[in-house]
Specification:
7 helices, 192 residues, 3 strands, mainly alpha, 3-stranded antiparallel sheet, Serine/threonine-protein kinase greatwall
Length: 192
């Protein structure tokens, strides 16, 4: 569920009566905390002298310490879509500084040949990773992208997900195995 759906009262029950609002949807069996990103919290001390976030997902305007808004979330969606399809983020590199340089130079190693993305996926990611935030698509444009043409946006929260993970217990990480292999992560079999 994304932020632009939270504003529609009929689709979710949002309790804002406490300092830690919660969201209840048909897809959740319990109340889920809804936390606002640190960059947009009101009444909090300013963090203008530091950048908050995971390096791979930061929009260029954050790195350049420019004013920013919701467009940073659409950038992050583009990064996530790329990572979902390729297994690694588009600007991945050895150090945070190298990641930042890749972001600012929009250095994207698009998968080739049998690994290349479909045209709708490539087009959506390419648009979401537009350097200029004023040209980056927002909710109305994203909803119209061919990649998302089969999504029933009006009934999103009542739709049956195509896949629901069935972990053995709360510590089961079997669904992360593919990512671990791609990133050459050696995960121990330590049991508690």
């Amino acid at each position: 569920m994304t932020r632009f759906h939270l504003s529609q009262k009929h689709e979710s029950d949002i309790s804002m009566h406490t300092s830690n609002p919660v969201v209840t949807t048909p897809l959740t069996s319990n109340r889920t905390p809804y936390r606002t990103p640190k960059s947009v919290r009101r009444g909090e001390p300013s963090s203008e002298h530091r950048i908050l976030g995971t390096p791979d997902y930061l929009a260029p305007e954050l790195l350049l310490r420019q004013e920013h808004g919701a467009a940073v979330d659409w950038w992050a969606l583009g990064v996530c879509l790329f990572e979902f399809m390729a297994g690694i983020p588009p600007f991945n590199d050895g150090t945070p500084q190298d990641v930042f340089n890749n972001i600012l130079n929009r250095d994207i190693p698009w998968p080739q040949e049998e690994e290349q993305f479909s045209q709708p996926a490539h087009s959506a990611i390419d648009a979401l990773l537009t350097l200029d935030p004023t040209l980056r698509p927002a909710a109305p444009q994203v909803k119209q992208m061919s990649l998302f043409s089969e999504i029933d946006w009006n009934n999103l929260l009542s739709a049956t997900p195509p896949f629901v993970p069935q972990p053995d217990d709360s510590t089961d990480t079997v669904y992360f195995q593919a990512r671990n292999i791609l990133q050459h992560l050696n995960v121990s079999n330590f049991e508690m």
